[in-house]
Amino acid sequence: MAESALHPAAAETPRNASLTDWIAVAAGSLGALLATLDISITNSALPQIQGQIGATGSEGTWIATGYLMSEIVMIPLAAWLTRVFGLRRFLIGTALMFTLFSMFCGLSSSLGAMIAGRIGQGFAGGAMIPTAQTIVRTRLPTHQLPIGTTLFGMTAILGPLLGPVIGGWLTENIDWRWCFFLNLPISVALITLLLTGLPSERMNLAQFIEADWLGILGLAMGLASLTVVLEEGQREHWFDSVLITWLSLASAIGFLLIAIGQWRARTPILRLQLLGNRSFASVLLIGTAVGAGLYGTAYLVPQFLGILSGYNAEQSGSIMLLSGIPAFIVLPFLPRILGRYDLRYMVGAGLLLYWASCFLDTELTTASVGHDFIGSQLLRGCGQILVMMPLSQLSMRSVEARHAGDAAGLYNMSRNLGGTFGLALLGILMDRRSHFHDSALREGISANSSLAQDQITSWTASYLAQTGDPGTAQLQAFGQLANDIAQQAAVMAYNDAFYALGLAMLACLPLIFLLKKRTAPAGPRP
Q1: 130-144: per-residue pLDDT in tens?
Q2: CATH fold for the domain made of 17-211
């Protein structure tokens, strides 16, 4: 008693995380990185994969859709399965499952086998994302949460960025199968960390027997069907397709079952009552918009560079990687920044920077190449850090520790659904705006026919010198004009898409005032 009085500072020093706690956090972060990396690692290798397994371009999209579909279903189930099997047993099981399905994908020689393997991969990977956030929330004391949040948040930023880069490099220099074989040594390291950092827990099979099975069925039906509808709807012409119509109906029935489960189950599989917390609900809304921005720009930039600038996968990946540079620079200082400044204003600043990066990309032309994206990519990287790191911490701070697993599931599900919604809406926008600009340009050319005729005459003379046939030369000139119009229309559609993403970021700004304000410093306190 007397010693405490003589040394009050010692009595007030909060508990620091142990080495075992940090090993657990490292294991969770590595697992989340592995899962987010594999979402996009096959994007660069798709042409080669399709060629070797005999799949068409439209069929090959299921290689990515299968992973995303099962991952989104698993993310909200992770909290319940953790309570049933115990965190250590559950994560080791999913890590082994992820490894086996990765090897299965790497050895696949048919489209059906590849899609089955990707579905299994996504299901296992979906468990690693929210559980990493749960480990951070439950194993670290409050004053060290910013460090754990930084480690977890980096996985959400670097995974989608590194995936296409690593996949492109492996495909160009070794073989596309190594996009999957690479997971074996990483999974061995992950399982070793899990065995070291997490204690063994008893299973609670009563939770399994008494589960909200109606909600689980609805979750699987609703989210899986919705993901496929959003991913494939544009290619299948939406409700002109029987498949999309039936899947939309299945999705509606699934969400109805989830709603019934909320009312009937003692412990619903989705704790939607957490949405009554306006701070947490605001985090989810902003996270959904940021997910759309993250996956949207990760789609638009490589597409522009590949289709209009003639870049290969490795070259496009190097431009995408620029947005990761700010993360590496700020990483050593980020925990201190998160612990010192108001997270709400950090989110606001990040949204503004993300909007500014999109605004810079609204002036693209047919002559734009990789270096034209350097400023916007660096700015985007700064925006991502300032938004995603605080959001990750706020999603945990906004709820009680006992709800950390459920909150992590909802937060990560919202981000992934935001990405899916964003890509679907961008697909619709790009298609419609391309047609709009194409028609407008053709009308403009008709109204200024003298200019068009001069250009056609010039091209015809050039082609005539090459071919010597006047008829062929004139056809080639008209083809050149049509190609130029299509290119200009496509570039204008990309500008519109970046403009829309920027507006989505601005629309989220008022929500920052609903986020939870820090009531006390995040550092040591009595």
Answers
A1: 888 788 888 888 788
A2: Growth Hormone; Chain: A; (1.20.1250)
